[in-house]
Amino acid sequence: MNTMITGATVITVDGKGTIHQPGAVVVRGDRITDIGPSAEVEARNPDVGKRIDGRGRIVMPGFVSVHNHLGYSVFRGRAEDIGHDAVLGLYVPMSTILTREERSLLAALSTAELLRGGVTTVLQMEEDADVSAAFVEEIGMRAALGIMASDIDVAALSQGRMVLDERIRAQQVEQSIGFAEQVHGRGNGRLTAVMAANTASTSSPELLRALRDAADRLNVPVSMHMGIGEAPDVRALHGGAGVFEFCRDNGFLDERAIAVHCYQLGEGDIDTLAQSGAALAHCPLMNQFRGAIAPAETMRENGVRVGLGIDNYFSDHFEVIRARIAVARIRANDPSVVPSMDALADATIRSAEVMGMADEIGSLEVGKKADLQIIDARRYGLAPLNDPVRTLVYHGHGKDIETVMIDGRTVVEDGRVTGIDEEDLILQAAQAGASAWDRFKTRHGAYVAAH
Fold first, then answer.
1. Whole domain around residue 405: which residue ranges?
2. What pLDDT shows up at residue 157?
3. Does residue 437 sit within a domain?
C-alpha cells in the first residue's frame, strides 16, 4: 500500500542537514518516492490512499547497527561487572552450553527489541547465527548474517591451554560457507551474508584464509573483533605477530573488512587499520562498561570509516548514540567533539556506509528504501521540541518510537512489534536463558568459568 506521512518534523540525515518542518514523506511499495515540505508533497501526491498524521511526531531513518550478537541477550545481568573476563569466562564456554533452540529464542527476543527501538538493519555475527535467520526474515528486519567462526578447542581452553584444532576448523568453515550461500539474498534481498571470525586469538591463519576466499567468491564483507586485549595471546599463538598485522596478512583487514571494538591499540595499529581501508564497528555503550574507549575520532581523522554497533545491549539505540558522544568528549576533554547531528549520522548513514548499503538505506531520500521510524515527540523528555536533532539525540528513548517501517512494511505499530506475541516471546526467552545458566553452573561450578 502507498503511504504518506504528513505534517511531521522530517530529519533526513541526507548529508546537507535537511530538516522539513512540517514535512511529508511518501512511500510507494518499498521505496521513498517523495519528500519535502508537507504542503508541496501533498499537492504532488493526491492519489496516495493511506495517510499518517505526523503532527507532533519526528520521522527519521531507521538506525543501522554494525555489530550485534543477537543470542547474547543470555548474558544480560551476568557480564556487565566482570570486564574482559567475560570473553573467556562467559562467552566462549557458553557457546558449548546453549542449545540451538535456546539461542533461537534469545536471538528472536533481541531482534524484536531492536525493531521496537528503531533499529532497521543489523550485522549479526554469532556462533550458530543460522538459527536466527528464519525469525529475522519473517519479522522483516534487514540484516547481514554470519557464523562467528573460530577453531579454538574450548575444552583445552578451560584447562588453560590454547589449541587450534583442525577438525573444529573444518566444521566451522563448512558451517560458515554453507550458511552464507543459503542466506545471501533471501527476504527479497533484505538478508545478506557476512563472513565472520571471533578473534585473532581464537582463529588460525587457515581459518581466516578460508573465510576470506568465500567472502571474495560471494562478494560479501568480513568482520572480526580486534584490539580487545588479545595481543599477548596472539603473539604466543601466532609466532610473535601483532593483532592487526595478523588480521591483515590473513585477509581480514581490507576495504571490505569491519574491525570490531579496537579499543586497545599499539603503536602503528591505527596506521595499519587506515591503510588497509577497513572500517570500525564502534561499540561505545558496551566498551564503556569495560573501562575502554576506542580512539574513534583519531581513526576517523586518519581516514577510517566509523559506524556504531549495539553489541550485547539491545533495548535502546539512543543510549548507544549518547555513549558515542560521551566517551569521545571525555577522551578529548572537549565538549564540542561529536555534535548531535554527527552522532545521529554515525547511527544511520555512516553505519550504512560501513555495511556497504548507503546507496539504499541510512537516510531519507527519494529512491532509497523506506526504512524509517516515527517518534512521538509529545512525551515527557521531548517537550518542548526546541531543536529536533539535539532534543532527540540527548533526550530520546526507544519507548518514544511508535512506528517503524522496513521496505515500506510496518514492523512496529503503536509501539508494538507486529506479527508476534511479545509476551509469549519474552516468557520463552527468559525460560531458555534460565535453563542454559543452570547447565552452565553445573558444568563450571559458578556463573563465571575458570580459565
1. 3-61+368-417
2. 72
3. no
